[in-house]
Amino acid sequence: MFTLLHGLWKYLFQRDEYCILILGLDNAGKTTFLEQTKIQFTRNYKGMNLNKITSTVGLNVGKIDVGSVRLMFWDLGGQEELQSLWDKYYAESHGVIYMIDSDDRERLPESKLAFDKMLGSESLEGVPLLVVGNKQDIENCMTVADIKDVFNESAPRIGKRDCLVQPVSALQGTGINESIEWIVQCVKRNIHRPPKRSDIT
């Protein structure tokens, strides 16, 4: 009887929790993406002024609830000296959002280098990957097709995992809902990384 009641309690009062890494070079818009996500998915959350966000030094953490799913975001600093810390979080992650600054053609090769190094980690094998082409609101920025042309070389490293390139303007909020809905679907069906359980609060 106790086991039955305990199971019912877990079903009613706990959520499946998934940890999502937000990676990419500094100034790609990772923190703006996280703040905009919290604004769109959390009732009464006002957040910080998106125009005054500066480069992350270390780690930002955020969470949102989407139905019965809780997403815990780890937004990691993208400066070169901080990229060496990324792999400390890989084993605990259920998905990766990799941000690209669509308005910075000059640093695209640098971004691809960091991307390929990330994909080389066995700890991320099979983990769903959302590649976000951010800053699509800026005139003459790179399109998704432009980004794919450069990143297609990485296809063998991506393998059979779920992967999508999504155009987004984190500042304006366009493409955020589609991004989150996609990552939720992918982490839920990825049987190789079962969710954690968290109390509904």
UniProtKB/TrEMBL annotation:
Keywords: Acetylation, Golgi apparatus, GTP-binding, Magnesium, Metal-binding, Nucleotide-binding. This is ADP-ribosylation factor-related protein 1. It is found in: Golgi apparatus, trans-Golgi network. One of its GO terms (cellular component) is membrane. Mg(2+) binds at T31, T56. It comes from the Eukaryota. GTP binds at G24, L25, D26, N27, A28, G29, K30, T31, G78, N134, K135, Q136, D137. Its main location: Golgi. Trans-Golgi-associated GTPase that regulates protein sorting. Controls the targeting of ARL1 and its effector to the trans-Golgi. Required for the lipidation of chylomicrons in the intestine and required for VLDL lipidation in the liver. One of its GO terms (biological process) is Golgi to plasma membrane protein transport. Interacts with SYS1. The keyword Nucleotide-binding applies.
